[in-house]
Amino acid sequence: xxxxxxxxxRICVLQNGNMREVSVHYNTRTGDTTVNGRAFSEAFPPEAPxxxxxxPWMVLNEPIRFRGNRYVKYGRARxxxxxxxxxxGEYQGTPLFREAGESGDPVVLYIPxxxxxxxxxxxxxxxxxxxxx
Length: 133
Hints:
The protein is mainly beta and about 130 residues long. About 10% of the residues lie in helices and about 45% in strands. The protein has helices at about 40-45, 55-60, 125-130, and strands spanning about 5-15, 20-25, 35, 40, 65, 70-75, 80, 85-90, 95-100, 110-115, 120-125. A hairpin with a 2-residue loop joins strand 8 and strand 9 (about 95-100). The radius of gyration is 17 Å and the shape is elongated.
């Protein structure tokens, strides 16, 4: 039987409307990830408020409005570091993020879809039209 090996690692989650890294315990033998003895999926469920993966507007690929601009789903979901984004606002209870340090209206909004800093990008429709001609 192989020895029990575990590691303390950090995972990005949505907490109180902002992205944060939290310490978790990962057991390499069992593959279990826990937070203070609780399963990670119980402590930070993907269907928790703020994550938009199951939001009807996300599922239906509907455009969203933010600061008078329309944004559309753009490409595939991607992982970003908590330090790479900052809170820009909110849409129907879901926090919206932009690139850290970006000024003016965001070109791309990043919408959290699941723990691990997984975001679905939404691009300003004015920029999509300019690229497509």
